[in-house]
Write a structure and sequence with these properties.
It is a single chain. By secondary structure, this protein is mostly beta strands. It has no helices and ten strands. It has a five-stranded mixed sheet with strand order 1-5-10-9-6, with no helix packed on it. The chain has a five-stranded antiparallel sheet with strand order 3-4-2-7-8, with no helix packed on it. It is globular and about 40 Å long. The chain starts with a strand and ends in a 6-residue tail after the last strand.
């Protein structure tokens, strides 16, 4: 799979991208809009009362002109798989090649963005 896109009505306005087996969920203790551990990234998004959230996950996602980079880092992926989910449902799982995966998170820059793009960056060599 190279790209997954969905439109969801998110009850609790956060989206998780995490390692599929061995993960630690970040403590959400600030209003930053993005929280991370070495195995998980959580991003705020638009909640159900304000409308649908547009969520994308994949390699080489084309960004909107107005997109703001809110995270650029790595997630440890020893199982070689990532899971994208809300607080109530798994949206998709995604195979990756490496034990560490670079991730960029793009939004409109607001704390409750109507779109979240989780862009995976290809590594040139498997680890």
């Amino acid at each position: 799979m190279t790209t997954f896109k969905t439109i969801v009505n998110v009850r609790h306005p956060i989206i998780f991208l995490r390692e599929s087996v061995h993960f630690t969920i970040p403590v959400v203790d600030t209003w930053d809009g993005i929280w991370t551990t070495s195995t998980c990234v959580i991003s705020n998004c638009q909640g159900e009362v304000d409308g649908d959230a547009h969520i994308a996950l994949g390699f080489g996602l084309k960004q909107r002109d107005s997109a703001k980079l809110v995270f650029d880092g790595t997630i440890e992926t020893p199982s070689r798989a990532l899971v994208l989910e809300t607080t109530v449902e798994e949206l998709t799982s995604f195979q990756v090649l490496n034990a560490s995966t670079r991730v960029r998170v793009w939004t409109d820059g607001s704390k409750h963005s109507p779109y979240i793009d989780f862009e995976l960056v290809r590594s040139t060599e498997p680890t």
